[in-house]
Structure to design on (175 residues):
């Protein structure tokens, strides 16, 4: 997936391209994060920073595409490119056949199928990268993410507060 690119059309007909994150995406990530509603920031980070620091940006963009994989999406409209979202997984050091995943979709593109495509791309890549389980921490009120994941053979455990730890075995996933 070194030069991975996937193109699709959203429910509203918008063309979207998905590719691996690049170092050049730091500014896009900074701006995109600032444009997210507090609700979207909260659903992604639970304790969201007001803005992404240089250290955050380095961590989020300087990935090895083996142990830490990140995919970004951009909408293509009239030769203009706009940010849609980012998804990632990070292999767990103490359990390398498992990885923690996270997905963020810009508010304007939520509910259009972007999260579903992101999860499918992450799962396909992870399975090819010797990951057998994807683990995510999702707030119980994040119904959109829970709807994306309900199609998979998952297990859910309530963690602190309303946080749910979701484990999805990739070899048994629904299609």
């Amino acid at each position: 997936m070194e030069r991975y690119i996937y193109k699709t059309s959203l429910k509203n007909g918008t063309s979207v391209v998905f590719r691996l994150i690049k170092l050049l995406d730091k500014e896009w990530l900074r701006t995109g994060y600032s444009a997210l509603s507090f609700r979207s920031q909260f659903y992604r980070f639970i304790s969201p920073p007001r803005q992404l620091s240089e250290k955050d940006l380095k961590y989020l963009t300087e990935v090895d595409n083996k142990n830490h994989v990140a995919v970004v999406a951009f909408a293509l409209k009239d030769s203009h490119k706009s940010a849609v979202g980012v998804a990632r997984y990070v292999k767990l050091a103490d359990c390398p056949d498992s990885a923690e995943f996270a997905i963020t979709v810009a508010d304007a593109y939520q509910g259009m199928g972007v999260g579903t495509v992101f999860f499918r791309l992450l799962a396909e890549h992870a399975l090819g990268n010797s990951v057998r389980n994807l683990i995510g921490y999702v707030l119980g009120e994040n119904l959109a993410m829970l709807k994306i994941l309900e199609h998979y053979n998952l297990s859910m455990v309530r963690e602190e507060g309303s946080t749910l730890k979701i484990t999805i075995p990739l070899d048994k996933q629904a299609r």
User: Anything to note?
Assistant: The mean pLDDT is 89.
